[in-house]
């Protein structure tokens, strides 16, 4: 017996305390172990599929109200589902990388690109749950290039058939993170999200969501088509802050459904705050649309910086079959460095994608083709944007200060723009606007032009090339 042990034997109280301390230490170790996917067979080598082991650890940890214990490594996984109470802590040195096999993403009901349909689950899913946290300084990697190639290959065969609009729906690329029908969800803590197969983070039919401290990188190993950063889709009470975004489509985007299906669902996006973020590449600093059918209200975006890889500052986009509304929109304190068009509004966005029609020789189309091509009456299809306040915008190196157009029978109403400081090559045009007030603005143009207000109808056949498309 050691000298220390003999001393403990002479003092029973000390012996009991030592025993309890040892028991507590063992209990803590055991508790940590049962929340470690490696206990259930995870290899963390980036080669073996660890989905089942990680899911087991997640379920046990959530049941014990404890965080999942991921140790350094690269964990190859398919879809993971986070139950209520999950704390998924992905520390530095840990990467979750998505499987390249479609069968590792189960097909489930959801809404994608504005319509409800069956679609592959995301890599990380919070569906019909509450009180979930995803945090840490590690990485979630969608291994996007294989999915991006599948899209472009499909697109090449679809466009000659008049099915460009169907490409996004038939390619079936997994999203990186989905919150659906959920509440009290927190994502952030400096986590890196990269190479998403499709949209990076979709907040769908959810409320009380906080995304604070994310780094999104979807232009590594190629440029992923439609790799949106954060899409807030028919949801409410959402905060996005401290995002650092480099993507190949919309960066910070609000959506609310597409065409007949979006009008049927009729769920707005409302009570949203987006702030204190930087966009390095992406379609705009802040985007509303093009899925506008359910409408938007009480939206505020501020303290955003967009760099020269971003063509638009404020981007509102819709189409004459989309419908919906936007009102009580407040956007302010934006810094735009080399952004081509600081204020960009189009209600006729991307006609080749927005206006779907069935080729006459197409036989047995899938049900969602019928949904996408269901005609919307004109009075329901026209979008209505009103009561928008934009102020404190500093823009340098712009090509055109304004590119704004709507419809004579669905004008852009009651916009107030003040304290804009824009340096641009030319002033640009504002068409189909009603009751706009512009005060205390400085618009400096290289060609000496002034903003042209016009009632001329927009060119409904005009071709535009959306951000992220092949030029």
- Tell me about the largest β-sheet: 28 strands, parallel
Mean pLDDT: 92
The tally of helices reads: 9
Can you count the beta strands?
30
The assigned structural class equals alpha/beta
Shape: globular
Strand content: 35-45%
Measured distance between first and last alpha carbons = 81 Å
Helix content: 10-25%
Unreliable residue stretches: 18-31
Radius of gyration: 25 Å
List the helices and strands and how they pair.
Layout: H1 3-10, H2 12-34, E1 45-49, H3 51-63, E2 67-69, E3 73-77, E4 80-81, E5 87-89, E6 94-98, E7 107-112, E8 115-120, E9 124-127, E10 130-135, E11 139-141, H4 145-158, H5 167-171, E12 177-180, E13 183-194, E14 201-204, E15 207-217, E16 230-233, E17 236-246, E18 252-255, H6 259-265, E19 269-281, E20 284-288, E21 296-309, E22 312-317, E23 325-337, E24 341-346, H7 351-354, H8 367-373, H9 378-381, E25 384-405, E26 412-431, E27 433-434, E28 437-439, E29 442-445, E30 452-454
Explain what you see.
The protein has 471 residues and is α/β, with parallel strands linked by helices. It is built from nine helices and 30 strands.
């Amino acid at each position: 017996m050691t000298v220390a042990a003999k001393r403990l034997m002479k003092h029973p109280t000390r012996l009991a305390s030592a025993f309890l301390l040892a028991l507590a230490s063992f209990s803590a170790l055991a508790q940590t172990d049962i929340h470690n996917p490696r206990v259930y067979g995870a290899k963390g080598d980036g080669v073996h599929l660890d989905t089942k082991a990680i899911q087991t650890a997640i379920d046990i940890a959530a049941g014990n109200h404890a965080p999942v214990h991921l140790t350094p490594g690269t964990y190859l996984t398919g879809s993971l589902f986070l139950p209520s109470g999950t704390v998924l802590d992905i520390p530095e040195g840990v990467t979750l990388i998505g499987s390249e096999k479609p069968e590792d993403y189960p097909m489930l009901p959801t809404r994608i690109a504005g319509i409800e349909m069956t679609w592959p689950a995301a890599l990380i899913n919070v569906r019909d749950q509450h009180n979930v946290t995803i945090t840490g300084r590690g990485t979630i990697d969608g291994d996007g290039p294989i999915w991006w190639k599948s899209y472009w290959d499909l697109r090449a065969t679809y466009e000659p058939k008049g099915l460009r609009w169907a490409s996004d729906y038939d390619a079936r690329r997994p999203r990186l993170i989905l919150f659906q029908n959920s509440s009290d969800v927190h994502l952030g803590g400096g986590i890196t999200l990269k190479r998403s197969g499709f949209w990076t983070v979709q907040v769908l039919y959810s409320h009380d969501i906080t995304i604070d401290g994310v780094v999104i990188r979807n232009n590594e190993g190629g440029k992923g088509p439609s790799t949106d950063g954060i899409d807030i889709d028919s949801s409410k009470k959402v905060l996005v802050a401290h995002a650092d975004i480099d993507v190949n489509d919309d960066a910070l985007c609000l959506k609310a459904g597409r065409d007949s299906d979006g009008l049927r669902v009729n769920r707005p996006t409302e009570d949203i705050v987006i702030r204190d973020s930087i966009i390095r590449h992406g379609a705009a600093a802040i985007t509303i649309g093009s899925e506008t059918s359910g409408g938007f209200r009480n939206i505020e975006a501020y303290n955003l910086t967009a760099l020269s890889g971003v063509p638009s500052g404020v981007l509102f986009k819709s189409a004459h079959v989309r419908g919906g509304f936007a009102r009580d929109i407040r956007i302010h304190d934006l810094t735009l460095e080399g952004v081509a068009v600081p204020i960009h509004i189009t209600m006729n966005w991307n006609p080749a994608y927005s206006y779907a029609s069935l080729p006459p020789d197409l036989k047995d189309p899938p049900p969602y083709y019928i949904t996408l091509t269901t005609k919307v009456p004109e009075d329901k299809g026209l979008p209505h944007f009103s009561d928008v306040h934009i102020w404190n915008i500093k823009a340098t190196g712009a090509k055109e200060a304004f590119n704004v157009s709507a419809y004579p029978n669905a004008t852009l109403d009651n916009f107030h723009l003040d304290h804009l400081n824009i340096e641009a090559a030319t002033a640009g045009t504002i068409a189909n606007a009603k009751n706009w007030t512009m005060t205390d603005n400085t618009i400096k143009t290289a060609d000496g032009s002034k903003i042209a207000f016009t009632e001329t109808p927009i060119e409904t056949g005009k071709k535009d090339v959306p951000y992220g498309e092949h030029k």
